[in-house]
Write a structure and sequence with these properties.
Layout lengths: L1 H16 L6 E2 L12 E5 L7 E4 L5 E5 L3 E4 L6 E6 L7 E6 L4 E6 L5 H13 L8 H4 L13 E3 L13 E2 L13 E2 H17 L1 H6 L13 H14 L10 E5 L17 E5 L1 H18 L6 H20 L7 H7 L15 H15 L2 H12 L13 H10 L4 H5 L7 H13 L22 H20 L2 H14 L24 H5 L50 H18 L2
Parallel strand pairs: 9-13
Antiparallel strand pairs: 1-2, 2-6, 3-4, 3-7, 5-6, 7-8, 9-10, 11-12, 12-13
This protein binds ligand 9MR.
Ligand 9MR binds next to loops.
């Protein structure tokens, strides 16, 4: 019996390793009627002919490739075909004469995906029961209550000595693991709030079917509040410092939360944690302060932001160095580090958010100028948050407050548009007709979020700043990549598309006994670094954009994480908002 099970398991995982056998690579979730629509055909030249038939079998389109492109990594030649002229909603079949692939064109094409990408955060909640009413088969009992969290020796103070206990409940699990990290939480929450600021009406209408649905607050903000409430507990009220993370010493096994029994600790106050916390709380106070129900929260969050910022000013270079920490303190901590050795962008971001929330130029202006340096736009990541300051400023461009300090900031509009134009210039020669993913550097741990949805968000800012549709069109190309028009042919969001990722490195998905993974999660994606190779079977390819393994052991290419889903939720929601106007 055991042998049989092993054989079955390896058969399953072997089939999971393969790339999509279908050479016709499309957005498997759906194209908006008005969108530019392209497909990429593997190993094809200019000669082939393609046809599209509708559900009744009638030919509605035929044509040849508009161009070919050769991959700089695998040397594979692909043909790009463009069927944008097809605008009638429906289900179609695209054929190259041998293989066929379904094409979906519909209104609100990405609307369900937008919702699922936010609902995923409900499924990641900790410390409360996840109820069948909202989560269906993914219901699970409350665990990791975090009401008995120990101060790790690295975080000890006179008032809170090592071994003393605090309560720090709630929030979201960070990723495939069960720990909670401030640096990544601040980044994730803020990115979600950025999208809300740009499309408030859209996000206000999202009905997520979560326990808070039906109250006076938009579900989207209710969900984000879950993590904000947890973050608030991570500040030491005695000095304003913020713990870097709440964690077990070692990662838990692949078990469900109720089966986890390791003691959890808050570990080390750091400058990055204080500043990410300050920026996030300051931003949240502006957004939630508009709702009477959150007046108290807004005041409290702003005060917490100021205290955290002041702590960071007194402690400007307390960096998280896990190895050094482990030399000094026990128990040793081996979980995610989120270690950032440059905090000038965090200072810039926190000062910018505090300025926008307080209007106090005397207090925060100097830090902004000092940390701006020769500012150049780069896509935001958990460790590079400078452009989040730009995003917040863009949302406030029309406010009288911003005009007060215009002389202190560069021309953000130009900066974002310049970046976007450079990205657009890539499309005509790109293997998959995308602005993202055209260089070796585009592929790394978590690249799908940063290179594709993160860039998509920047393009949407450029669209908003200029009103020029070419940026929106380009952003959609990156969405198509994530959803199947790519080198592996996977739809990289769980639960969506005809060939989706099935085995994410996510304890909740693997340990629950349900075959289908939790839906709505973007996986990390192709990563030629393959840092998990000692734990995984062989990847099927070493090429940059094919170095992906749909295997639960692959934490370097197939994990899920709140920062990645935050960028998915911001990107897809914003796209859907624009395309549904
Ligand atoms: O997203 C993080 C990525 O940028 C780093 O390269 C990687 C290795 O340090 O860690 C990633 O973050 C992980 C975190 O440390 C722990 N939870 C899971 C995260 C996603 O893999």
């Amino acid at each position: 019996m055991r042998l049989l099970t092993t054989l079955l398991v390896s058969a399953v995982s072997l089939s999971a390793l393969a790339q999509n056998p279908n050479p016709i690579r499309v957005n498997q979730v759906g194209y908006y009627p008005a969108a530019e629509k392209t497909a990429a055909i593997e190993q094809a030249g200019m000669a082939s002919k393609y046809t599209i038939t509708n559900a009744a079998g009638k030919k509605v389109w035929s044509g040849k490739a508009k161009r070919t492109a050769v991959s700089p990594w695998s040397n594979k030649q692909r043909a790009i075909i463009d069927f944008s002229t097809l605008t009638t909603p429906g289900e179609y079949t695209l054929s190259n004469g041998k293989e066929t692939q379904q094409i979906i064109i519909k209104d609100a094409a990405l609307s369900d995906l937008a919702k699922a990408s936010v609902k995923a955060f409900y499924l990641q909640r900790t410390g409360e029961p996840i109820l069948e009413k909202y989560a269906g088969v993914y219901a699970r009992p409350a665990a990791h209550l975090d009401t008995y969290v120990m101060i790790h020796p690295s975080a000890a103070t006179d008032r809170r000595p090592a071994g003393s206990i605090i309560s720090s409940p709630g929030g979201w699990y960070d990723a495939g693991d069960f720990n909670k990290y401030i640096v990544n939480s601040g980044y994730s929450v803020s990115l979600m709030l950025c999208a809300y600021e740009m499309c408030p009406e859209y996000y206000q209408k999202l009905d997520l079917n979560i326990p808070e649905s039906g109250n006076a607050i938009p579900d989207y903000l209710d969900e984000v509040m879950v993590n904000l409430r947890w973050m608030q507990t991570m500040q030491d009220p005695a000095d304003g410092g913020v713990y870097h993370k709440l964690t077990t010493p070692n990662f838990e096994g692949f078990v469900m939360p109720v089966d986890c029994h390791q003691q959890r600790y808050v570990v080390a106050k750091t400058t990055a944690a204080a500043l990410d916390f300050a920026a996030t709380m300051a931003k949240a106070s502006r957004i939630y302060g508009k709702f009477p129900e959150f007046k108290y929260f807004a005041a409290q969050a702003l005060q917490q932001a100021k205290d955290a910022y002041a702590w960071a000013e007194r402690n400007p270079r307390v960096l998280y160095r896990q190895n050094e920490m482990n030399q000094k303190f026990k128990p040793e901590v081996q979980t995610g580090a989120y270690d950032d050795m440059n905090v000038s962008d965090e200072f810039l971001w926190a000062a910018a958010e505090l300025l926008l929330s307080t209007g106090d130029l005397n207090r925060y202006g100097e830090s902004i100028v000092r940390n701006l340096g020769n500012f150049e736009f780069s896509l935001p990541t958990w460790g590079n948050v400078a452009s989040l300051a730009v995003y917040s400023a863009v949302a406030a461009l029309d406010s009288p407050l911003l005009s007060q300090y215009k002389q202190y900031i560069p021309d953000f509009k130009n900066i974002v548009v310049k970046y976007a134009d450079k990205a657009l210039a890539e499309i005509p020669t790109s293997c998959f007709n995308t602005p993202g993913g055209n260089s070796e550097k585009s592929f790394f741990w978590g690249c799908l979020s940063e290179t594709f949805s993160g860039q998509g968000i920047a393009l949407l800012y450029a669209y908003r700043l200029t009103g020029d549709k070419k940026y929106l069109t380009a952003a959609l190309e990156n969405a198509d990549y994530l959803l199947g028009r790519n080198a592996t042919g996977y739809c990289y969001v769980t639960g969506f598309g005809s060939f989706p990722s099935m085995h994410p490195h996510q304890r909740l998905s693997e340990a629950d006994g349900i075959e289908a993974p939790l839906p709505g999660f973007l996986v990390g994606g192709p990563n030629p670094g393959q840092q998990d190779r000692t734990n995984t079977p062989e990847y099927s390819s070493k090429f940059a954009d094919e170095s992906y393994l749909d295997h639960m052991a692959s934490y370097a290419s197939n994990e899920i994480a709140i920062n990645w889903n935050a960028s998915l939720a911001a990107f897809i929601g914003w796209l859907d908002a624009e395309m549904s106007k």
